Amino acid sequence: ALVGIAAQLGINLDEPASIARMLDVVFEFDDDRLQDALDLLHDYVHFRTSTGPDPEDWDEAHAVIEEAGDEPMPVPDELLDAIEFCDRLDPNVRLAALANTRVVSAVPELLAWLGKSQGVTPAGGIRRADIATVAAMIGVRAEGVAKIIDKEWHPPLEFDMNAPLPEPDVYYARSSLDIPTLAAWWEALQQAGLIERTATRIRPSYAAATWPVDGTFPPYADADMLVMVYVAEVLLEGVLESEWNFGLPVMIDAIARLMPAVTADVVDGDSDGASGHSGAPLTTLFAPRALRKISHLERVGIVETRDGAIRVPGPLRSTVGRAIIAAMRIAAQS
């Protein structure tokens, strides 16, 4: 099929320089055909490199193919349209929605606790003695412990496959990294420039200087970055670990549930983008873990769920949409 398309377009695949032109054509394919076409073109270049009379020229073509394989994965048009639409909403309304999330509203308390600096673990996490204090800022009950043998908690053997995987009422954690919502917020605070690590301590960073402590709204860009990174971190939790953890299919399932809530009604001109919700729920082996990710977003006020439907408030949709894109691209590069 590629040969036929090349012939119709006057692209001579016997010439190494033609590969770059053919890639431009291939990247216009829909998602279902794109990867197969890239693989086929890659195999063809390998063949010409090993059998052709001018392997050096084909080596250059092979480098072009390799670089193309590193291109960011395609983003659905409806997601880009939803982000563009919601970016046109009143900035003050969007900022108010961001400030209403627990991720943002807890920052003044975090900075007050932090003071000039606080000690951290060698891995840069929250010390066990501080886990309960910091977790409570975002509504999580937790306790840092050295051993959890007598308090160890496991999900029940039987649970609803269309409900979030159950979580403990209180996390007894050796590390803050064992608490998904807390780990995501801690990373988001660093990525948003609110805190920064030294060798042994954590201290306020550049964005903390302009973050108000009197209850007024913070700068939009800082709040947007904080929420976006939090959402992406929640989605990516488990993805970069062992493939046997099945983190990637869980993330894909969660994104499949979030996408309709981000895109519904927006491109049809809903003035505030506030009525979107997910369609029929997916039932998969990974559904409970995917729904737990959604619950981690709901816990801090980023999404709402009702009768199995997921809703993302209109003013937050562009932030959540960009977080989905970021998570997809990070996962694709891992």
Q: Which key terms come to mind for this protein?
A:
three-stranded antiparallel beta sheet; elongated; two-stranded parallel ribbon; 51% helix; 14 helices; mainly alpha
List the helices and strands and how they pair.
Elements: H1 2-8, H2 18-26, H3 31-51, H4 55-69, H5 77-87, H6 91-99, H7 102-105, H8 107-114, E1 118-119, H9 128-137, E2 142-144, E3 171-173, H10 180-191, E4 195-197, E5 201-204, H11 220-236, H12 247-263, H13 287-299, E6 304-306, E7 309-311, H14 317-333
Parallel strand pairs: 2-3
Antiparallel strand pairs: 1-5, 4-5, 6-7
Strand content: 5-15%
* Gyration radius, rounded: 24 Å
Order of helices and strands: HHHHHHHHEHEEHEEHHHEEH
First-to-last CA distance: 31 Å
> How would you state the average pLDDT, rounded?
84
Largest sheet: 3 strands, antiparallel
Across the major sheet, the strand order is 1-5-4
* Poorly predicted tracts of residues: 267-283
Textual characterization of the structure:
This protein has helices at residues 2-8, 18-26, 31-51, 55-69, 77-87, 91-99, 102-105, 107-114, 128-137, 180-191, 220-236, 247-263, 287-299, 317-333, and strands at residues 118-119, 142-144, 171-173, 195-197, 201-204, 304-306, 309-311. The chain is mostly helical. α3 packs antiparallel against α4 (55-69), α11 (220-236) crosses α14 (317-333) and α12 (247-263) packs antiparallel against α14 (317-333). The relative contact order is 0.13. The strands form 3 sheets. It has a 3-stranded antiparallel sheet with strand order 1-5-4. A two-stranded parallel ribbon has the order 2-3.
